[in-house]
Model the fold of this input.
Amino acid sequence: EIVLTQSPGTLPLSPGERATLSCRASQSVNRDYLAWYQQKPGQAPRLLIYGAFSRATGIPDRFSGSGSGTDFTLTISRLEPEDFAVYYCQQYGSSVTFGGGTKVEIK
Amino acid sequence: EVQLLESGGGLEQPGRSLRLSCVASGLTFSNYAMSWVRQAPGKGLEWVSLIDGGGGTYYADSVKGRFTISRDNSRHTLSLQMNSLRAEDTAVYYCAKGAGNGYGLDYFDYWGQGTLVTVSS
Done:
């Protein structure tokens, strides 16, 4: 099973700042089949990125994904108030696993 | 608009069984993989099981042999039969739609609002 480790666990930032979230896999993710989700309290997850760097429909371009192999990054170029949430990575190249999440909180 | 509506959650004792259902609308159901993902209270997401458009099934090790995923394309319904329940199965269970071509593993572009399963004596 591929284990995904997300860091940091918590990321305190201010609106307007840049957020950089990391997702590291215990082995190479097949075909870079890596997705990112956003989850707010009491809500279901929302798909942001798939295939490591492709934005899902309706996702603002301040969200971008990068990386390949075992190291992936989600970047939010300038945080908006609605972006404070928990973010999860998911790999779907070998079975399916989720990372433990990164909480982006207001500093 | 795609909508996924889960049902069947509730309180059940350890060792007993529970069956979850998810009714989908706004999509050609048979064309997509469907999955169950759970979230224990205050914890992260954990993938449980997936069934693809061809009926192929996949399970997390934590539920293999205890849970069975199935689908009824004529009724646009996804199901999860959960047997031999354990306290650690307590979670909100989400139904999620695969975004790809319907075969094999997938990422998920639509999610239901979830149904809470509590396993406790």
